């Protein structure tokens, strides 16, 4: 009986992981279509404690000529320094929401980063739950 309960919990956890990864990927694909491209200048690179990567303070000009200063935390930017240029995409109605313009930061396949872990939980939970059911 414990295997059925544990397996069910693992199955639900895996499905939840997959769903949340899918939603995040879908939001990124939507942002890729909705956002406008720009080139930002990096003003400052800030080290993040306990998190991989850097927080970049950037400045760019929108399509309508507005100067925007904001922060972005790209996953795939590599190490860049103050004064470097960075391709970004920004929300036209909220230009302070800027994203590094890279396939892994915007527009990656939905759920790509969670497919394997989610599959392990889903199938592991399924096998554990089904394997624990006594023969009738």
N-to-C span: 14 Å
Q: Report the CATH C-level class of the largest domain.
A: Mainly Beta
- What is the domain total for the residues? 2
Which parts are unreliable, with pLDDT below 50 for 5 consecutive residues or more? none
CATH topology value of the largest domain: OB fold (Dihydrolipoamide Acetyltransferase, E2P)
Mean pLDDT over all positions: 75
Shape assignment: elongated
Instruction: List SSEs in N-to-C order.
Output: HEEEEEH
Structural class: alpha+beta
The percent range for strand residues is 25-35%
What oligomerization state is this entry in? single chain
Protein name: DUF3592 domain-containing protein
InterPro entries: DUF3592
Pfam family, one: DUF3592
Keywords: Membrane, Transmembrane, Transmembrane helix
Q: What are its keywords?
A:
single chain, alpha+beta, 136 residues, 5-stranded antiparallel β-sheet, OB fold (Dihydrolipoamide Acetyltransferase, E2P), 2 domains
Structure description:
- This is DUF3592 domain-containing protein.
- The chain crosses the membrane at residues 6-22, 114-133.
- Residues 49-103 form the DUF3592 domain.
- Pfam families: DUF3592.
- InterPro entries: DUF3592 (IPR021994).
- This protein is of the alpha+beta class.
- The protein has two domains: 1-34 and 109-136; 36-105, OB fold (Dihydrolipoamide Acetyltransferase, E2P), CATH 2.40.50.
- 37% of the residues lie in helices and 26% in strands.
- It contains two helices and five strands, in the order αβββββα.
- It has helices at 2-34, 115-131; strands at residues 36-47, 54-61, 67-72, 85-90, 98-100.
- It has a five-stranded antiparallel sheet with strand order 3-2-1-4-5, covered by helices on one side.
- The longest helix has 33 residues, at 2-34.
- The chain starts with a helix and ends in a 5-residue tail after the last helix.
């Amino acid at each position: 009986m414990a295997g059925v309960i544990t397996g069910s919990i693992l199955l639900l956890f895996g499905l939840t992981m997959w769903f949340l990864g899918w939603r995040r990927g879908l939001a990124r694909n939507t942002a890729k279509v909705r956002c406008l491209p720009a080139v930002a200048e990096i003003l400052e690179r800030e080290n993040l404690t306990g998190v991989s990567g850097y927080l970049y303070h950037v400045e760019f000009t929108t399509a309508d000529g507005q100067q925007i200063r904001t922060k972005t935390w790209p996953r795939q930017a590599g190490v860049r320094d103050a004064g470097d240029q960075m391709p970004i995409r920004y929300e036209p109605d909220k230009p302070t929401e800027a994203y590094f313009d890279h396939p892994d930061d915007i527009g990656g396949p939905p759920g790509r980063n969670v497919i394997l872990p989610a599959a392990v939980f889903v199938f592991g939970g399924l096998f554990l739950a089904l394997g624990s059911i006594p023969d009738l």
